[in-house]
Structures are given as structure tokens and as C-alpha cells.
Write a structure and sequence with these properties.
Length: 271
């Protein structure tokens, strides 16, 4: 179900969508299963991200879970009924599709904030690793539990490793270590820890206020530069960045931003 007046987004059953001016809040809404990632939920999330990809009126996406839990990871009951009754090729294809969602969320042009309360287990922890800003409560529980189920954390492994480094990724994945909010920050998974949900909301509002000072087009180009920096040789990355800089400098945003600085006023997007 949706609550948006400015965008025509796909109808959703396992997500709740809320539009508040430039912020799109996406709630994982399977509280009875601790927001485990069903095929329906991931398909819906894919569709929503595709729909808003080029919409610069949506400047921030906030992803969190209903029922006091962020996400318990993959739908294990679904694994048994859907994946263990088909061929290896079909299982691999299904698993790989979650990797596509991770890439999409990781490189979404909007600023992505993930708020974690309750727990982020398995794929839920993976999602927390692809946000631009991840905030967690102190008592939130984290674990990469896949190997305890006899399977690898396949599609999230590259993103977790990129976030925490190879040494910590090996420890977390190969031991199924349990930890909470403070350690999530120490590991680099999260950027801030909140005392409780009220504090989590307050910290999120502060971040949203900071984002309003940043031009949405410039933020989108900056994210592109960051990811191309990881993919390209240094000279090519710098060439790519220079073209992005030129495009922004000569854009309406660039003209407005420089003018606002010279005139000592807020830019039009910072209201």
C-alpha cells in the first residue's frame, strides 16, 4: 500500500511507502516474519527504486522495518519451499537477482539512509552495508548467520567486505559472530548509534536537514564519481570526475549554488 501524492509508484503489499516532500520512506512490512526478504518484497523494492531513479524531487530514501525489527535476512521458509525443489541453475539465478538489488540500492542516485532497530541479520546486515548513512540503536542485534544454515552469504559478501574490510568480513562470516550497535559503528557498518528509537528518529532528522543543504543533482553525480573511482584506473576515474564537475558547474544547480554563495543566501534547494 502506498501513501504518495506526487509520484506514481508501483502498488506494494510487503512495503509501505510514505512521501514527505523530498523524502521517500520505505518500510519493510512483514513484521510477522521479522521483515524477512521474500521474493515479493525484493521485487517490489526493485520496482520502487527503478521508478524513482531519475526523480530528483526525491532527494533521500529512508529504509527501515515495521514491527521494531529492521530485517531478519532471507526468507528461510521460502528457501525450503521454493529453492530446494528446483534445479541448481534456478537456485543460482534466484540468488543472483538479490545481488542485482544490492547493486541498485548501493548506487541509487538519491541519498539512502537505513535505520536499524531490533535486528539486522544475514541479508538485512547486507542491506545496512549499502546505505550512504546507516544509523542503529545500541541494542540492535547483528549477525551473518548464513554459514550456520549450511549456505554462504553469497550476494552480500562483496558489499560487506567493501564496508568492513577483508579481515573483519572473514571473521564475521566464518564464525557467525553476534554483535550490537556500538560494534556495528566500530566495524564501519553504521555511522551512528542511538540510545533508543526516539533518538534514532532525531538523528535521522538531523541528517535529513544536512542533506537539504546539498543539491540533489550534485549528490547524484558525486555518488557516480565515488563508484567509478573504485572501478576505473586512476586516470580514467579523474577524467570521469572532471566531466561530472563540468556538467554540474554549468547546470542550473551550479549556477544557482555559486550565485547563492556570492550573494550570501541559501540556495534554492536549501529551504
Amino acid at each position: 500500500m502506498s501513501d504518495l501524492s506526487k509520484s506514481e509508484l508501483p502498488a506494494t503489499k510487503s512495503l509501505i511507502l510514505e512521501r514527505d516532500e523530498s523524502v521517500l520512506k520505505i518500510w519493510l512490512n512483514r513484521p510477522e516474519s521479522k521483515n524477512a526478504l521474500s521474493t515479493e518484497m525484493t521485487d517490489e523494492l526493485n520496482a520502487v527504486l527503478d521508478e524513482v531513479h531519475d526523480d530528483r524531487s526525491i532527494r533521500t530514501i529512508v529504509l527501515r522495518g515495521k514491527g521494531g525489527v529492521f530485517c531478519a535476512g532471507g526468507d528461510i521458509k521460502g528457501f525450503k519451499t521454493d529453492m530446494q525443489a528446483v534445479s541448481a541453475d534456478e537456485v543460482a539465478k534466484s540468488n543472483r537477482s538479490f545481488g542485482d538489488l544490492m547493486v541498485k540500492l548501493n548506487e541509487q542516485p538519491q541519498v539512502v539512509i537505513i535505520l536499524v532497530e531490533g535486528a539486522a541479520i544475514g541479508g538485512g546486515l547486507g542491506l545496512a552495508c549499502v546505505a550512504d548513512v546507516t544509523l542503529v540503536t545500541a541494542d540492535a542485534r547483528f549477525r551473518l548467520s548464513e554459514t550456520s544454515l549450511g549456505i554462504p552469504p553469497a550476494q552480500i559478501a562483496p558489499f560487506v567486505t567493501e564496508r568492513v574490510g577483508l579481515t573483519q568480513a572473514r571473521r564475521l562470516m566464518l564464525t557467525g559472530a553476534r554483535f550490537k550497535g556500538e560494534e556495528a559503528v566500530a566495524l564501519g557498518i553504521a555511522h551512528g548509534v542511538a540510545a533508543d528509537v526516539a533518538d534514532l528518529d532525531a538523528q535521522c532528522e538531523t541528517i535529513l536537514g544536512n542533506i537539504k543543504a546539498c543539491a540533489p543533482g550534485a549528490n547524484a553525480v558525486t555518488k557516480g564519481i565515488l563508484f567509478e573511482t573504485l572501478r576505473r584506473p586512476r586516470a580514467e576515474a579523474l577524467d570521469f570526475a572532471s566531466k561530472g564537475f563540468a556538467s554540474c558547474m554549468l547546470s542550473p544547480e551550479g549556477l544557482e549554488g555559486i550565485a547563492a554563495f556570492v550573494e550570501k543566501r541559501n540556495a534554492s534547494w536549501n529551504k
